[in-house]
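Weekly structure sync, notes
Attendees: PL (lead), two postdocs, one rotation student
Agenda item 3: pending single-chain targets
PL asked that the sequence for the first pending target be pasted directly into the notes so everyone works from the same version. It is reproduced below exactly as submitted, 460 residues in total.
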Amino acid sequence: GIIQLADTVDRETNHTFKFHVYGEEDLSMAKHSSNRSSVEVSVVDVNDNTPTFLHPPYVFTTTENQTSGHRVGKVSATDRDEGNNGRVVYIITSTGDANDTFKIDQSTGVITLSRDLTQTDAGVVFLDVRAEDSPNGQVRRWSTTQVKVLILSVDEFSPVLDRPSGYNLTVPETATPGFTLTAISATDPDLHENLTFTLIEARQDFKLQGENPTSLLVNSSLDRDPPLSRPGHYLFYVRVSDGKNSVTAPITVTVTSVNEFTPVMTQSVYRAEVREDDVMGHEVIQVEARDSDSGPDGVVTYSITSQDGNTFAINATSGVISLNCSRCLDVGAQDQYTLIIKAEDDGSIPKSDFSTVIVSVRDVNNKVPVFASGVFEGSIREDAAIGTTILQLYASDVDKPPANLTYALENVTPAGWLSIKDVSYVVTAAVLDAETAQEMKAIVRVSGRPHNTTAPIPIT
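Predicted structure, written out during the meeting:
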């Protein structure tokens, strides 16, 4: 009457067996049945099942601004055993979180924050969670799963540029593409690492290179001189964005002129002419120099570095040379002047060129003829024939060329006795008579138009 197992049993599959037992007699090979008995066999649980997580792997998400006690997520495991053999306990066994940021409810598997999160916590944390059963006096069974927690940044703040009020920069016009003007950097209180910098209204003249800090570079020629004649000032903007929030700051670039070119006089030698009677301020000639620089570097100032005396002056701005005195020129004393003209630009390191101006003085008939003698005296015999030469007149004119001098007799006494022959010879014009007059007189006038002078002529 011993009941034995005919096969293995599993309580989780069938925890109770029910059947009937009959007692029988064997009399003369005839079977006789007795009363039937019911038997119920209960299978006692043994801790033979391991807890199993329901939905591994687990990925939970939270944000950097959550506080202590915030629920992050829940893990769940089941154990087919009954009682303590099937009661699951949850434990965090290892963590990539050195700050013990997370904790787990042993009974429910709910994972919560053990402290307030900060911006520095943004990132990914991996937790190893173990689910184990709680047998009485038996070996525990357990399993593990990995939990990935994403701590997301909350974009609360805008980036901050290193110079929020703007960038005031200078660059020489000779800067070539690739020249670095400055570095631009920004920070973000949200601890964003990927900030994006862009230029606004910069056209193709400037560009950014690099991430953070980024470099502002020249991207095209900034030459202010012809033929490009680029502007001297640029205004554009830089914007930095964290993907959600952004800030903008102005950039002002002043292009400084570089004194690249030397003034060049349009002529190496200038020639001019003045009259003897020109007055102060009379414009003699204008010199000119050309400088291809722009701005002050291309402004030319003129000066006379060498001349005879202080006869001429030059306008420093226009290059006009004028007479510095009135009627001070005398072709007889000096008929030519040589001036050395300097043309200098206004660059910080000035450059210059030189030219020669030759001024010729033109004579003006402004001199009075001068007799060789203050008085012309002569004598002649009474019996001299008509046309006899008594004396020769001589006068000079210092004008160049000298004026053509003419002579004339005035107030001849006695009348008609004297005349001029062959331009400058005084000759008798009548038969002389000592009884009528012992002396002849006249006034000689020499004329070099428009000037003339006179001298007496006494003749005995």
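Discussion points:
- The chain has a mean pLDDT of 86.
- The radius of gyration is 64 Å.
Action: rotation student to compare against the earlier draft before next sync.
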